[in-house]
Amino acid sequence: MGARQWFLGWPVVRQATGPDKLGRGAAVQSQRSAALTPRTSTADKVVKSVCPYCAVGCGQQVFVKDGEVTQIEGDPNSPISRGRLCPKGSASKQLVTSPSRISEVLYRRPHGTDWERLPLDKAMDMIADRVIKTRREVWQDTNDDGCTLRRTMGIASLGGATLDNEENYLMKKLYTALGAVQIENQARI
Amino acid sequence: MPGLGTSFGRGGATTFQQDLQNADCIVIQGSNMAECHPVGFQWVMEAKRRGAKIIHVDPRFTRTSAVADVHVPLRAGSDIVFLGALVNHVLQNELDFREYVVAYTNASAILRDDYADPEDLDGLFSGFDKDNRTYDHTTWAYEDAEAAAAAGDRQDHPGDDHPGDHGGEQHGETARSESYGSGGATMRAKPHHDPTLQHPRCVYQVLKRHFARYTPELVQDVCGVPPELFAEVADAVTRNSGRERTTAFCYAVGWTQHTVGAQYIRTASILQSLLGNIGRPGGGILALRGHASIQGSTDIPTLFNILPGYIPMPHAEKHLDLDRFVAEDSGKTGFWGNMRAYTVSLLKAYWGEHATATNDYCFDYLPRITGNHGTYDTVMRQIKGECKGYFVVGENPAVGSANAKMQRLGMANLDWLVVRDFQLIESATFWKDGPEIETGELTTEEIATEVFFLPAAAHTEKDGSFTNTQRLLQWHHKAVEPPGEARSELWFYYHLGKIIREKLAGSTDVRDRPLLDLAWDYGEEGPLAEPSADLVLAEINGSGPDGPLSSYTELKDDGSTSSGCWIYCGVRAEGVNQAARRKPGKEQTWVAPEWGWAWPANRRILYNRASADPDGNPWSERKRYVWWDAEEEKWTGADVPDFEPTKRPDYEPPVDARAQDGIGGAEPFIMQTDGRAWLFAPAGLADGPMPTHYEPFESPVDNALYGQRENPTREAYDRPDNRYNPAGSDVFPFVFTTYRLTEHHTAGGMSRTLPYLSELQPEFFCEVSPALAEQRGLEHMGWATIVSARTAIEARVLVTERMKPLRVRGRIIHQVGLPYHWGPNGLSTGDAANELLSVVLDPNVHIQEAKAATCDIRPGRRPRGPGLLTFMDDYRRRAGVPEEGP
């Protein structure tokens, strides 16, 4: 590379002499950055989604490559959000790909001092046993006046506002069939 | 949201976010919208760009105030005085939209002659029972309500001796008012009217007398707002309402989380009704909700007191069978008159072929409620050892609920606990590293709770719908498989139900029938055997003999239709998932009716019949929205009419008409029994037919209006683990309020583990004014300890002019601001603001008072370990808080 070429290739000179006066495009491009492509352009698929944080309901586009979420951006088609996301929505890729996210079932036995591992199917079986047992032990057929209660006050549930409608539906349906009435979510918190 | 439900008939936002752009004035109060709903806030800015005046009323100067035209700082907990004074300003100066008020509200209805007002009874409404601290609502009814009950069935009901009212104590206890999420309270009669509004007992005159003392001088005295600032707001709101102009209100939990929360919203509802701003473009009341599907989890409730579609949970004493269950409502006029069809269709969705006419459609399979079984009641039962098993799914009560210590003590006393989340939140680890372990109040080895932590799937890993703040269902599609053993809630509850049913198969125990007869078939897809969310949505939508239903008007009470949530009927019209519609906004009108699906019936502005005058013509060209097309003989316009499509504006209901046939052609509030917006709520609320000012339960001042200081019907639990700061205590002289920041979410379970967000807001802080910092020796960026009768927490100090000391009741009141996102786990850590709050609840929905309480603040960090307990003993002693026994 000659001295002249070297000098003209200097970003500040390119900015001063070229069309990119603000230095936000070609003037500041290096060989490396010229070769880069956005990870959104190489995604295998783009999946339509909705931001999981507040209730504005911003549209999201989830970019996926090799079965992994590589980026989450606002959906410009949404008439509500028009492509925008707030800091939380913009950071939601970190929510779903967080290295501290737990992907195994953990178990703490009564009086235990630490977590233990438990296979998922074993955990499901144990939880089902406990639900059945508590329901049997803490059951009310009627009240003192003989009115039907058909319920257990031994089991309670909290949560739902971050979940899907379909999930809330199955929760309420199963709890109701179990006779569990102490079902609550963030709407009252 | 009973404030909206009892006023208008449905407990959801009356409008949608994009409609804010049409407003001529927007009042944001009880919300920091720019901070907490930043992307929705673009529609406020759009309105501002078009010339609208933006007013922010809030104790703090925030990101919302910064871009508003006017910021009104007021004392936390004094909003009813401010809003009531606006109502008074409208009434005294006759600035109401008279044609709208006479035709569409109950202003002209005549009340009974034995109704007495707080103005007569020093802060109590008539019917107060001092021993039980509850109201008998009899005297709040319309005159001759019973005798004149021409509309519909008037059979008598056991236990219901209050004509036209769900009745007294049980009403509040069981949070019946929350069931006005869709359908107003029961009045089994239409009132007499005086359209001249001159009758001394008509609602208009009663309202006028009730609010007469809510003057600008009172606003100054109680809220700390100077008269000229109040006048600016009063002028803006009234000038921007009427035929040609509309004003919108936005609120959030700054209004709801009070011991009079429902009445805050009632006051705004009264004001907006008087100004003619409901059901019209650029008007309305937008409830800003804080979780992706908190509206959905109320519509399809994970709540103790309601079933899907706001059908109440049956009460043991009152609802012995299906007939008696629906009797209260089935005689009504308005759409709630079809309650039997909605209930039978739900029972068919739950129990399918097992639900038949001969077995009352399995109505008896429903468990009964007997009182308040809300979350705080449950925690007290856990502490007593009565509630032994607990599922915590996507919520973090160990730091996210008021008096967080009580929550942990409850969890430490369980037999078993299931926590489903992405990360090891505080509710999963309290037994190991909770604050009580540090103080020595609990030891890990002594805690017997068996804990299962099950990893949850994220929104990108499952199909499903969220219902946003404007009642809009939007479908999110699965992008990837969940990692490892992470599963969706749909998977967890489907398989848990399946396993339990398998284990109980063959049981002859009658109590197992509801489980064994349950319709529980949702397919199993893919390697994880994931149930189909689309099949669940199809069940929610409902079906009949000819397949999927398209509207709740198709539901029948003869068992021929099923629908898991009647208000969502239509979301899968024609068998197509309407919530997944994504026609780009730019290819549609500004209403964008083909993006997602809004309940009910895809209507975006509720009560939009009111956007036309009684004859069906737009009130003005500028505010044209939905109108009567006389040639086509139908309602038409920019939105789906919230009205029967071909009911003529001049339709007069016959005297014996029931359900929707009892609603006249010029009565837009179709879920109300009388088709009108309720300025005065003769039924539906536990604490009064009209809002009246009470001080927060913990307040530094007396009530300027009445000897009755706080809400007489609030629910207080004075016990050793929930001590209250004495009223007017010198030890706890400051007001504190809690709130959110843009960069975090609720109690932090979904934000404190994210590096970007933790870097943006790295630790817990408190906001104080320079004057308070000076008074207490607090240093900017230093540490402060904040104390209530519950405990003490520490926070970094942010000294800022944004916090304004206010002169209230003749003295300076300082306010402390506390964002409540923190807890000890995650990347960004700090004490939880919820440690400071007590459990004291609104009587309508049992929500805690989180937005106004009292505290002390002092420089330095809080004591560690057992030292914290000694420190608190000293504080309680000095404040005169009892140590032992309730």
TrEMBL record, chain A:
Pfam families: Molybdop_Fe4S4 (PF04879). It is found in: Cell envelope. One of its GO terms (cellular component) is cell envelope. GO terms for molecular function: 4 iron, 4 sulfur cluster binding; electron transfer activity; molybdenum ion binding; oxidoreductase activity. InterPro entries: Mopterin_OxRdtase_4Fe-4S_dom. It comes from the Bacteria. Residues 44-100 form the 4Fe-4S Mo/W bis-MGD-type domain. Belongs to the prokaryotic molybdopterin-containing oxidoreductase family. This is Formate dehydrogenase major subunit. It comes from Labedaea rhizosphaerae.
Automatic annotation (TrEMBL), chain B:
The keyword 4Fe-4S applies. The keyword Coiled coil does not apply. Residues 18-424, 454-497 form the Molybdopterin oxidoreductase domain. Residues 734-852 form the Molybdopterin dinucleotide-binding domain. Pfam families: Molybdopterin (PF00384), Molydop_binding (PF01568). Residues 147-195 are annotated as: Disordered. One of its GO terms (cellular component) is cell envelope. GO terms for molecular function: 4 iron, 4 sulfur cluster binding; electron transfer activity; molybdenum ion binding; molybdopterin cofactor binding; oxidoreductase activity. Its cofactor is [4Fe-4S] cluster. InterPro entries: Asp_de-COase-like_dom_sf, Formate_DH_Act, MoPterin_dinucl-bd_dom, Mopterin_OxRdtase. Keywords: 4Fe-4S, Iron, Iron-sulfur, Metal-binding, Oxidoreductase. Belongs to the prokaryotic molybdopterin-containing oxidoreductase family. This is Formate dehydrogenase major subunit. It comes from Labedaea rhizosphaerae. The lineage of its organism: Bacteria, Bacillati, Actinomycetota, Actinomycetes, Pseudonocardiales.
